Amino acid sequence: MIMKKIENDKRIEAYLDRYSVRSFFRFPDQIGFELYEFSKGEIINNLMDPIDYLLFTVGGKIRICNVRNDGTPVLLAEEEGFTVLGDVEFASNEVSAYIVEAASKVRCLSVDVNRYRDILENDPVFLSFLLRSVAGKLTLTTAYILEPEDLRERTIYYLQNQTLSGVASAASYLHCSKRQLLRILKRLQEEGTIIKTGRGTYRLKG
User: Between vectors from CA 36 to CA 22 and to CA 32, what angle results, nearest 5°?
Assistant: First the structure.
């Protein structure tokens, strides 16, 4: 199965209302929204380049990866629910440096940037939203760059920001093997630093 366009105006309206997408624009009625569905495993920005489209993910999980010089991918983040893709590309007018993969079936509202660029560039409400969105991603990127080198400390840092749910995906994010991470998690449990709340799920104690 490959990406498909969903021709369903009621569903589009429902997503626009659920995530208050119209509030991101001064004159939302001047903007056309379309709905697309991506299958698990599809590379979203190979199919719809964020320099050409603003994408609002309204369902499913995505993985955002960087690529090392040797060609191996590095997981930077997993996002589930509402996320914006194309904000950095719109601001910089440069192609994406990252790979965005559908980690499950993903649905996105899209805005054709080339068609609506003049409206978007002169919309103070949208530009304010864009600034907040890009700033949030910059904060996450900075945190990733500055995270500790030691795996134990990286794991604690990770848990300070979120619950660890799924050892395999967390190991990819932390750039270690699943076995290495399990060993660290066991040690942290024994120290009383973290507690296990379910299968493959951990959080900081207290």
Answer: 35
